[in-house]
Amino acid sequence: MEISIKINGKSYEGDVEPRTLLVDFIREDAGLTGTNVGCDTSQCGSCTVHMNGSAAKSCTVLAVQADGASITTIEGLATNGELHAMQQAFTEKHGLQCGFCTPGMIMAAVKLVESHPDIEEDDIRHGLEGNLCRCTGYENIVRAVAEGSRQFDPHSPWETEPAEHKITLREAERRARERSRT
User: Fold this and answer.
1) CA 74 → CA 45, 48, 163, 171, distances in Å?
2) Predicted local confidence at residue 156, as pLDDT
């Protein structure tokens, strides 16, 4: 099947088998190897990319399902050679060890912080539950996401925001469910 996918602002076309996974198209057809294949079962999150503005595990999406989509991979986060704030935070706070999970972890963290700028430590842990790291104890990853959140919102609760202004991720999800019912 002929497909066309925009990845990091560039169009990629290909003739793929219907069973081709998006992660394989990204790595093999587009030649972007920052997106990793870890488990092929959506358990580890190493393959997380942004698809049409949302985080998606590319090992669970068929390439034909992404036909016409706009994808951002870890390679597409940097702008004009400057690392994205979350990439920089992972570097500064040592939020990686072997680095295998790092691209997916960063991609998930960017969307987590974009949707919940007033995020707290427990919410970071909850929000990244779908991304596994086999090397670290997650402490530096959580610190890196917290640091990255300050770049998104200089008044982040990680700095000086009073506790009464914080909203937890679980509370935000509860409120979203309530809004969707009405």
Assistant:
1) 13, 9, 33, 29
2) 44
